[in-house]
Each structure stands twice: as structure tokens, then as C-alpha cells.
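Our example copied in:
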Amino acid sequence: MNKKYSILILTAMCLMIAAASCSSDDESTGSSFVVSDSYTSTLVSRFTLGSNDKVLYNLDSVFFSIDQDKNLIYNADSLPKGTDVSHLTVSVTFPNAVGKAVFKVSESEWMEDKKEVEYSSETTDSIDFTHPVELQVTSQDGKVVRTYEVRVNVHQMQADSLYWDQKARRDLPNTSGDPKNAKCVEQNGNYFCLVTDTYGYVLSKASNPGQGSWERLSVAFSFEPDVASFVASTDAFYILSTEGELYKSTDQGQSWTDCGVQWHSIKGAYGQKVLGVMSEGGEWKHDEYPRGSFTPVAIDPLFPIDNSTDLVMASNTWTVAQQAMLMGGRNQAGEVLRTVWGYDGQKWGRIDNEYAPAVLPELEGAVLVSYASFMNDTITHRLSQRSTWIVMGGRKADGTMNGTTYVSYNQGITWSSGGIKMQLPEYMPPFVGAQAFVVNETQHKVRANAPIRPITQWDCPYIYLVGGKTADGRQLNNIWKGVINQLTFKPIH
């Protein structure tokens, strides 16, 4: 026989003997293979709560995640605030036969005399999940015990509520504390606030309207400005004089140039152009600056010539061109409107459905916000995010202040009351003529029940509500910070 092959055969035989010896040792000592079998017979593959409509409808549909690496069972989508989890039944599925499964309760007001519940498919005993509970699973051969921690998470706040933090309220920037007029605008990620106070005009700049410390800029006017008309395009500031002349600044307010245009009002900015309303030959018309090839066009009788919301850019994928929207105001006949109008970079068009029930009232000086809200799935109790337009504040046609928040889930076509969870709190005074901005802020949080690859930071959109006036015309010295609570929670994925 070839010497080379003899060595290979001898080596193979030694390996076979060694393997057999290892197998024999494993069987006699109870290591490796036996432990593996015992290990799989301690696994939990499914965990659900028992049905109990007195606690929560469709409670048995709540999904529980099972982290086999961390031995953790939990519902990533927390149950609604106030859900009573002190008396719940459970259903547990094991992929293999187990020896025993026991729930152990360490903290309970009513289970002091019975802190252990042995589980079987016929178990109907209630368990107190107000604190984490241990589930000890013993393998069928009794050699391995796996301990899961079971958490039934409940929101500590109303997840789908719009919350305004009193502690986060700020004053308008760099003023004497007694502002007379104010207007805040956004330009390329920076925020500029123009304020009139006892000592004149103050222009301030910040990267976040809630940061508290603003940079004070030099601002000078050779004319009397209408502060409420102040807007920003992507490359300039614009403002009207009290006589209606349009002025432009390309150096952040240090100097202003007369545009040679006479307007009644500024509707807002779109890209590098500003949109306005003018009167020509006794007819009200849309205008733009720079005008370029645009020719002023007659205004619809239901379009607001003043006192509408600011023009708000829409973040969506439902149209090819960038959309912008505004709501309410007064038309050329002096009537207060409830209409919603959109602009696509070329022309204006009415958005709201005139044949739908008139839920949204006639308003002037309201605030329009493109934001998000959450819809609760009544079966799984999971919250799903949806695009939401919000209208707040303003003055009604009868002269009273609006205290109701309205929402639209279909891009402004139809509207409804936002419900109790979206309404402004009593500590926020009624307002007209405020500005609102949605600002993404990075959150840093880690949950104990995080996924295997935890998310440690994410962007959360906050609403900043700036200024506004009271019913009697007094300037409000407020910057409020609001958020839908769910947006502050760490994402599951």
C-alpha cells in the first residue's frame, strides 16, 4: 500500500475513535448533545394575553415580542394609558414539550399569598403584571431551567395626544419684555424673528426657535414696515411698508431695496419668489416677485386677500411639484373664509371640498401646520402614523376667538375636530396671527426592552408656536413647544 495513503487512513481511523469516545463521554456526563435537547425544550414561541373586554377590547390580539437571546417577552407597542394589567390571564405556546412552566410574581398588592402560578393550557388563574414577572420554564428532563422576564408595557402618557410643555415655553428674543408686534420666519434652516418693542425694531436669528439664546442682528428701515407682512424666500427677506410698497433685503435685514411693486398683502414665499395680492384697475389680482414672464391674474371671489394663515409647504409624495397651502382669511368682499387653497409653483387652486360638511369654521389669523398624528388599531392596539394638517387659533366670523383644533387626514380636502387629545391646554391663551414651525430635533433614549440592535437616536418633529395676539390686539410674548407624545418614544425598528 502507498505509504501516503496508509497515513491518511490511519489518521481518519483515529478521528473516528476520538469522535466515538467524545460521544460516549457526552452521554455519560450529560454535556453537549443532551444539554442542547434540554435547551430547546425550554423555549417559548408565542405569548398572548387572554381576552378581557372589561380591561381592553381585543386584548388577546396584542402582539408580544420574544427575545430568545435576552430571555425577554414584551409588547413593544405599549397598551393605552390607564390599562389595568393587575388581573390578566395568559396563553403560552412551547415548540417542544416542557417539564414545567411557572410564573413568579415578586411585587403585587393582591398576590401576596400566591406569588407562583404554574401554567398549563387549562390555567385560568390571573396574574398581576403591574411589575415585571418571571416565567421559569423547566426542560422535560428537568436538567435545564430557563427564566424569561415578562413585561406588559403600558403607556405612562396619552401616546396620541398633542402635548405642550409649559417648562419649555420661551419669550420672544432680545426684547424689552414688552413686544408690540412680532413675526417669525424660516429661511434655509435658520429662524428669524422681527419684533417691535419700546425701543424700536429688533431682528434676531437662531438655528432653533426654542433654544432660548438668539443672535441679535442689525436691522434698519428707511420706511415704516408692516411687521406682520415679513416673509423669507430661499434667498431674500421681503416686507411691505405700511403704504404697501414691497421691499427686499439680501443681507439679512441690514439694508432694504424698493422693488417698485405696490401690493395689498404678501401671501408667502415659494422658492426664490414671493407671492402677493394687488389691486389693478379696480380688480384684485395674484402677483409674483420677481415677476419674470408672469402676468397678474384675477383672484377668485373666495380667495383671501388678507388675514389668511401663512403659506405652508407640504411634505408629501402625492404630487409631482412641491405643494403649498393656506387657509381662511378675508376675501375682497370682506367676508371671513373657511376655504383652503393650494399653490404648485404655477397657479392657485382651491383644495377643500365645498360640498363636504362645513366642519372647519370661517377663520382669520389662524395657524396651519403640516404635521403627523396617530391612528389606533382597535384590534392590535398599535398606533400607525398618518400625515395630518392642523388648524389652530384664529378669530371666527362673529369676532370670538377659536378654541378648537381642527385636522385633515387627506391633504386639506375634508376636515374634522381634532378631538380632545389634539386641543390646546387652558394655560395657552387664545391667539390670532401666530406662526408655527415644525423642527426636527434629535432624541437620545435607550429602553431596557430594546431590540437586539437598539435604536439610540432618532429625529422627533416638534411644533413651535410663536407670538400671536390676544383678542384685544396685545402682542403675546410666547414661544410654545408642542409634540405628539408618540413621536418622542423610541422607534421599535
Helices lie at 3-29, 33-40, 485-488.
